[in-house]
Amino acid sequence: MRFATRAIHAGQDADPLTGAVVPPIYLATTFQQERPGKHKGFEYTRTQNPTRKSLEECITQLEEGSATACFASGVSAISAIIQNLSPGDGIVAGHDLYGGTVRLFDKVYSYWGIEVVYADDNQIPSFEQAIRKLSRPRLIWIESPTNPLLKIVDMGAIAEVAHRYGLKLAVDNTFATPYLQKPLLLGADYVVHSSTKYLGGHSDVLGGAVTVKNYEDIKPIQFIQNSIGAVPSPFDCYLLMRGIKTLHVRMERHCDNAERIVAFLCGHPKVQKVYYPGLEQSPLSDVVKKQMKRFGGMVTVELKDIETLNRFCERVKIFTLAESLGAVESLFCVPYYMTHAGLSEEKKQKLGVYPTLVRLSIGIEDVEDLLSDLEQALE
Ligand SMILES: Cc1ncc(COP(=O)(O)O)c(C=O)c1O
Question: Whole-model pTM above 0.90?
Answer without folding.
Answer: yes
